[in-house]
Amino acid sequence: GNSVTQMEGPVTLSEEAFLTINCTYTATGYPSLFWYVQYPGEGLQLLLKATKADDKGSNKGFEATYRKETTSFHLEKGSVQVSDSAVYFCALTQGTSGTYKYIFGTGTRLKVLA
Amino acid sequence: GAVVSQHPSRVICKSGTSVKIECRSLDFQATTMFWYRQFPKKSLMLMATSNEGSKATYEQGVEKDKFLINHASLTLSTLTVTSAHPEDSSFYICSARDGGRKETQYFGPGTRLLVL
Description:
Helix content of chain A: under 10%
Largest interface: A-B, 24 and 23 residues
Number of strands of chain A: 12
Low-confidence stretches of chain B: none
Structural class of chain B: mainly beta
Structural class of chain A: mainly beta
Strand content of chain A: over 45%
Distance between the termini of chain A: 41 Å
Distance between the termini of chain B: 37 Å
Shape of chain A: globular
Order of helices and strands of chain A: EEEEEEEEEEEE
Oligomer: heterodimer
Mean pLDDT of chain B: 90
Number of helices of chain B: 0
Helix content of chain B: under 10%
């Protein structure tokens, strides 16, 4: 069945460091891929998405490219800030007839130190 | 952006009692809402999909008589954990889909349930 695998955290970085959070997926067909972020005490928020191969999603300095050949959707940011500390979830949807069920990875906690 | 609220944010109950969790879409109409369960260091697991005015569709392995879902209006869905037991302790998260935006779901902040 479909699945999403994320690197385990926590990831601890200094401010302005480069961030990569790995995400790979298993799916039949052509899923859409997402990154969600959860700040402390809040719900999951959509960070970025890509709906087809070679698409690059980007938002708030974060970006991820849909790589079908490696079934990956790694999240990157060139210079992290303390305010980026949160839990990041990689997810895919694959639906028919408008069902669009989400399958999530386990989440990766990011801690950015000043 | 779209806001989804959950109530309560945290609940502690005795084994054998029932607990109701509410999920509300505050500024849009949600024809479809989803309920997830999250175990520590685990993925969010979809429990069920609820459509306004119809019966919920449960994922394989989820007991429909244990987890009662009602989606009586376009802005409210409820999850009732009946006869709760300690193994039901978990973090429950709802999401709502704006009818006009197929794939995007807006998530609530979650409800932590502890059954003693």
